[in-house]
Amino acid sequence: MMTLLVAARVAVPATSQLLPDLNARLHPSDSTPWTILFALTLITLLPAILMCMTPLVRLMVVFHFLRQALGTQTAPSNPTLLGLGLMMTWFLMTPVLGQVDQQAVQPYRAGQITGWDAIDRGSQPIKHFLLHYSREKDLALFTAAGQIPRPNAPDDLPMRVVVPAYILSELKAGFAIGAVLFLPFLLVDMVTAAITTSIGMFQLPPVVISTPLKILLFVMVDGWNLLAHSLLKSF
């Protein structure tokens, strides 16, 4: 009987030492649920964020205008253009992402701020980026449509106004660049069509001759380098 009591007394402290470890595993820190929530939300909204809050909109519009101007329907392919657009978007957004990490992610990981504070702080650099490339006309359009009082500063506008205004501004910029990009190739098409018609080549479509000429012209002037340089300079 005495042996059992001694064994029980020895086992109780050992069990009490194991309880804190077990409770720590069953009840993790308060930041863990927020981390899981943020990760799932970002994964779900990642395609929309990339298309609506990054330069990817302008880049993809210009790339597709270029493909139409060259007359190559499938070259470069959509995955190739999307991959190039994503890499250029990553390059352009690196400073903004660095600010988000410094102002929101690192303090949240250190437990200095809550999850909502991290969202609020992290959205500020992104909002500044969007406002920088949004036209006042587009901002005024959605401000009036949302019946939002006139703000004292652009930073006071909510994201539901800034994001659609940014998309409209980027679409306009992309179409403007695409229209300028189309002109030299359109000139090649017109000259080729005039020459083939004047010499009586009615059975041969002009696009059969103009497409190789446009591709050769684009390669000779190092078109991809010039296009990437112009797009990067536009931001």
Which helices and strands, and how do they pair?
Blueprint (H helix, E strand, L loop, with lengths): L1 H25 L4 H22 L3 H15 L7 H32 L5 H18 L3 H10 L13 H40 L7 H15 L2 H11 L2
Helix pairs in contact: 3-4, 3-7, 4-5, 6-7, 7-8
- Could you estimate the helical fraction of the residues in percent? over 70%
User: What is the total number of structural domains?
Assistant: 1
- List SSEs in N-to-C order: HHHHHHHHH
* Main sheet record: none
Secondary-structure content class: mainly alpha
Mean pLDDT: 75
- Would you count the extended β strands for me? 0
The amount of beta strand, in percent, is under 5%
Q: How many helix segments?
A: 9
Kindly provide the radius of gyration, computed on alpha-carbon positions and rounded to a whole number of angstroms.
29 Å
Give the overall shape, derived from the CA principal axes.
elongated
C-alpha end-to-end distance: 83 Å
The stretches of 5 or more residues where confidence is low (pLDDT under 50) are: 1-29
Subcellular location: Cell membrane; Bacterial flagellum basal body
InterPro entries: FliP, T3SS_IM_P
Transmembrane segments: 32-57, 175-195
Membrane topology: Multi-pass membrane protein
